[in-house]
Design goal:
Blueprint: H1 3-54, H2 58-73
């Protein structure tokens, strides 16, 4: 290996490899965060939709109102 190649190519290769490793770690973390955000949004939407549909049932609505009034008594 020529002398200049050791002083030019190896540091460049080191920077490229370090960038590749760091970007892989950051990408993994961001992927995990995005997955958590999407999962939280899906769970929230399911909870909201369930509550909205169930409030259409009169017995469920009455029970929720009764529970809400009881909460104030304690």
């Amino acid at each position: 290996m020529p002398f200049w190649l050791k002083w030019v190519a190896l540091p460049i290769a080191g920077v490229v490899v370090a960038f590749w490793i760091i970007s892989a770690i950051v990408g993994f973390i961001l992927h995990g965060l995005v997955t958590l955000v999407i999962a939280a949004a899906v769970v929230g939407a399911l909870y909201w939709g369930y509550h909205k549909v169930m409030m259409e049932i009169p017995a469920y609505r009455r029970k929720k109102l009764r529970d809400k009034q009881r909460k104030g008594l304690y």
